[in-house]
C-alpha cells in the first residue's frame, strides 16, 4: 500500500536542519500544522519559530502549539521581517500552489541572511509514475487542472529558475527524494534514496551565497513574459 505521508519528506527536512549551525530564527511559509517547525525545534531548541499561514484551522493549531504565526498572503504581501534577518526559511509543499513565485522568491531572498538556508519541498513533475502517465497520454498527478496545484517542478528547472535570475545566488547544499509510486513504503524509501530525481517529492537545501539584488522582480519585465505577475 502506498504511504502518501512520505510525500512530505519529513526525514529529508530533518536531515537538512541537522546540518544548519545554531540558527536563531526558523521561518516556515505555509506552516500547516507546524510539523516542520517542530522538527526544527527538536534539533535547535533555542531557535525562534515563526509560521506564515492563511488557513484559519491551521492558524489555530499553530497557536495552540505556541508557534508565533503571521497571517498573510505570500503571493502579494511583504514578509514582515527586516532584510537579511532570518537564518532558515522553509517552504514545504507550498510553491506548487502559487502563481506568484517571482514575488515569493524575492521576499525569501530579501529576508534570508547570506549563509542562511532555504529548504524547499515540492512534488516532482519528473517522477517515475508521472513519466509513465505521460507516456500513455495521461496528466501527471502533481499538476492536474481540478486540483490546487498550478506549477510543476523538476530538480534542474528549479535550480535554473533560482540561479538563472541572479547568478550564484543560491548554492545547492543537499538534495533528496521522498516516496516512489506505486511501491509500498519499504521499497519506496529505498528507491527514492537511489533515484531521487524519480521520486514523488523532491527536496532542496539551498544556501544563500551572495547578497540579493532584487533581480526576481526585474526578470519578468526584462524577459517580457507577458503575464500579469504581481511584482509589488
From TrEMBL:
Residues 27-120 form the Methyltransferase type domain. It comes from the Bacteria. InterPro entries: Methyltransf_11, SAM-dependent_MTases_sf. It holds the Pfam family Methyltransf_11. One of its GO terms (molecular function) is S-adenosylmethionine-dependent methyltransferase activity. This is Methionine biosynthesis protein MetW.
Amino acid at each position: 500500500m502506498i504511504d502518501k505521508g512520505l510525500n512530505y519528506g519529513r526525514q529529508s527536512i530533518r536531515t537538512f536542519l541537522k546540518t544548519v549551525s545554531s540558527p536563531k530564527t526558523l521561518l516556515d511559509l505555509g506552516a500547516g500544522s507546524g510539523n516542520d517547525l517542530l522538527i526544527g525545534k527538536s534539533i535547535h531548541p533555542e531557535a525562534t519559530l515563526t509560521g506564515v499561514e492563511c488557513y484559519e484551522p491551521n492558524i489555530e493549531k499553530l497557536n495552540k502549539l505556541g508557534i508565533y504565526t503571521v497571517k498573510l498572503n505570500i503571493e502579494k504581501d511583504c514578509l514582515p521581517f527586516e532584510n537579511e534577518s532570518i537564518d532558515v526559511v522553509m517552504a514545504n509543499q507550498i510553491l506548487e500552489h502559487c502563481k506568484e513565485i517571482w514575488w515569493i522568491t524575492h521576499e525569501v531572498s530579501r529576508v534570508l541572511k547570506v549563509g542562511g538556508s532555504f529548504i524547499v519541498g515540492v512534488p516532482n513533475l519528473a517522477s517515475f509514475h508521472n513519466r509513465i502517465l505521460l507516456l500513455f497520454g495521461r496528466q501527471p498527478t502533481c499538476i492536474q487542472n481540478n486540483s490546487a496545484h498550478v506549477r510543476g517542478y523538476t530538480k534542474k528547472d528549479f535550480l535554473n529558475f533560482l540561479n538563472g535570475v541572479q547568478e550564484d545566488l543560491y548554492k545547492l547544499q543537499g538534495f533528496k527524494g521522498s516516496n516512489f509510486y506505486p511501491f509500498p513504503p519499504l521499497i519506496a524509501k529505498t528507491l527514492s534514496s537511489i533515484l531521487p530525481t524519480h521520486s514523488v517529492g523532491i527536496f532542496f537545501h539551498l544556501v544563500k551565497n551572495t547578497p540579493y539584488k532584487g533581480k526576481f522582480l526585474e526578470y519578468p519585465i526584462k524577459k517580457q513574459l507577458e503575464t500579469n505577475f504581481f511584482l509589488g
